């Protein structure tokens, strides 16, 4: 066998799985599975199937997910750079499918980086409601913010916080909470051998302490009648059924909802917690009863020897309280029917939000964090002028100013006071050298019909790739589509096969490339 499993892991799995162990072990001989998930914020599944560069085989537990041949390099196609799909391990698509996200919900993704599940949640929200996406790792939130932007999400806030500090600001606030918990990663050994080295470095107890804390803190943020999905990519019952059993014991107002039978979910292994004579050693924790431990058979497991995917665990925790009519986010912010990214942390290095002051201009809600002495009216005038000249209409929502940067946010900014905010919303642009420059995420969040000037580049003959590499392109004027009264000169929304990639500036047959250097195709 090519893969060297840690002996302690293999011995434990053999003990737990008994007769099934040989089959489990044989799964490590098979190649890993690769998947993509269609981003329905950009394209519906049927339309994507019609233009897909890859053969697609449906993933049973995710309507928008497909197995693809990894050797075809799905990350090297202009459609990937246009955010039409996200590359995601097939089993990792399961937790969001059982979170039951509906447009308009307030959703928290607490351990979110690099953002696979957050972009899946965003697609289910369809631009309505709120996604707060968080990770404790500052480094990993960079990838998280980028993936949110690449996917064209307009209603997300990206945080880099501890769950405890978020709970302090958002008690009983969220309808849905996803905890894709940090774990020992045993289910990912086949996908990523580095996970084996990581496994050897940390004790199980370190993980279980973190998992317990995160779950208990998350529960404080759930609104009555809401739902938490707890998932891991590990097999150890200590990190899975035992965490859920203990939570249920301490929180009688929660039930575990059984998973749908279709799709390949195997039941949770309550039997690993409960033996004929009572609780197994593993779970002789104070207060835990056999009845509660037995409920964990309603959790779900994806086994690499039973499904085409890696190992995962998931539990749907439904709060039994009556859902209260919460204030709709759209009521908190006038006109929030379209609400989302950027490059500037909105907090200082200590995570302190600079004291905001609000002011209204016309029908608009404007908030400002006074980081830099940029003149507010200059910023607003810049944004007004840009939108008049380049957009069919101004996107609605609360305009927030951070120094010289403009965002549209799905929440009133005082909700974020004191939190280390990586993106307070959709990054619109900034005033540089006295001029408003549109942000790249403004382009990735726009629909082609919202721009005044568009240019469609060919996907087939390498033209879109040239743009993605940052090249200047020669583009004759008839290829630029524009609003007659505004002319062809100026910022152009550049597309690949009809899907926005970024900005360019067209003048006299030349398209100056505005694709950000850090995003370029290499
Ligand atoms: C399994 S990964 C998340 C993968 C992600 N959900 C996705 O689908 O792309 C777990 C994440 O939890 C983060 N993490 C670890 N401890 C945390 C904590 N106490 N609070 C929030 N995030 C934490 C890690 O930095 C890591 O990015």
From TrEMBL:
Q: Which SUPFAM superfamilies would you find in this protein's record?
A: S-adenosyl-L-methionine-dependent methyltransferases
Instruction: Identify the PANTHER family for this entry.
Output: 28S RRNA (CYTOSINE(4447)-C(5))-METHYLTRANSFERASE-RELATED, NOP2 YEAST -RELATED NOL1/NOP2/FMU SUN DOMAIN-CONTAINING
Q: Name one GO molecular function term.
A: methyltransferase activity
Where, in this chain's numbering, is S-adenosyl-L-methionine bound? 111-117, 135, 180
Q: Can you tell me which residues form the catalytic site?
A: 233
Q: What is this protein called?
A: Ribosomal RNA small subunit methyltransferase F
| Gene that this sequence comes from | rsmF
The biological process GO terms on file are:
methylation
According to its UniProt record, which protein family does this protein belong to?
Belongs to the class I-like SAM-binding methyltransferase superfamily. RsmB/NOP family.
Question: Which organism is the protein's source?
Answer: Paenibacillus aceti
UniProt lists compositionally biased (Basic residues) regions at: 351-362
């Amino acid at each position: 066998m090519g893969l060297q499993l840690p002996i302690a892991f293999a011995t434990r799995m053999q003990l737990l799985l008994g007769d099934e162990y040989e089959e489990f072990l044989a799964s490590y001989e098979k190649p890993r599975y690769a998947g993509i998930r269609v981003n329905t914020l950009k394209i519906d599944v049927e339309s994507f199937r019609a233009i897909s560069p890859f053969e697609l085989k449906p993933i049973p537990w995710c309507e928008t997910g497909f197995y693809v041949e990894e050797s075809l390099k799905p990350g090297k196609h202009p459609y990937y750079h246009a955010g039409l799909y996200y590359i995601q391990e097939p089993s990792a698509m399961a937790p969001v499918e059982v979170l039951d996200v509906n447009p308009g919900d307030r959703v928290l993704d607490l351990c979110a980086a690099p953002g696979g599940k957050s972009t899946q949640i965003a697609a289910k929200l369809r631009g309505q409601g709120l996604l707060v996406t968080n990770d404790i790792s500052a480094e990993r939130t960079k990838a998280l913010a980028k993936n949110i932007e690449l996917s064209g999400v307009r209603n997300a806030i990206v945080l880099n916080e501890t769950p405890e500090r978020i709970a302090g600001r958002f008690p009983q606030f969220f309808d849905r909470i996803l905890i894709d918990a940090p774990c020992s990663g045993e289910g990912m050994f086949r996908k990523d051998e580095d996970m084996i080295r990581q496994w050897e470095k940390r004790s199980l107890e370190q993980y279980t302490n973190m998992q317990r804390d995160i779950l208990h803190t998350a529960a404080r943020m759930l609104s009555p009648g809401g739902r938490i999905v707890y998932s891991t990519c590990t097999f150890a019952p200590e990190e899975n059924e035992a965490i859920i059993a203990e939570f249920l014991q301490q929180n009688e107002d929660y039930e575990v909802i059984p998973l749908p039978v279709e799709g390949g979910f195997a039941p949770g292994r309550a039997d690993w917690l409960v033996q004929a004579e009572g609780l197994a050693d593993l779970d002789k924790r104070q207060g835990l009863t056999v009845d509660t431990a037995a409920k964990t058979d309603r959790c779900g497991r994806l086994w690499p020897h039973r499904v085409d995917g890696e190992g995962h665990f998931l539990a749907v925790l439904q709060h039994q309280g009556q859902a209260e009519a919460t204030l709709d986010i759209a009521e908190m912010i006038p006109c929030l029917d379209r609400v989302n990214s950027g490059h500037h942390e909105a907090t200082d290095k200590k995570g302190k939000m600079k004291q905001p002051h609000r002011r209204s201009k016309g029908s608009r809600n404007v908030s400002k964090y006074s980081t830099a002495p940029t003149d507010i009216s200059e910023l607003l005038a810049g944004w007004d002028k840009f939108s008049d000249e380049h957009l069919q209409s101004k996107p609605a929502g609360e305009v927030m100013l951070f120094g010289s940067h403009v965002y549209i946010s799905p929440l009133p900014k005082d909700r974020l006071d004191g939190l280390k905010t990586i993106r307070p919303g959709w990054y619109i642009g900034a005033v540089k050298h006295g001029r408003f420059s549109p942000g790249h995420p403004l382009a990735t969040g726009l629909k082609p019909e919202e721009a005044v000037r568009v240019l469609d580049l060919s996907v087939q003959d390498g033209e879109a790739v040239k743009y993605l590499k940052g090249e200047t392109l020669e583009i004759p004027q008839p290829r630029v589509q524009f609003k007659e009264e505004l002319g062809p000169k100026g910022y152009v929304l550049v597309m690949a096969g009809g899907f926005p990639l970024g900005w360019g500036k067209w003048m006299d047959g030349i398209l100056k490339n505005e694709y950000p250097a850090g995003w370029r195709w290499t």
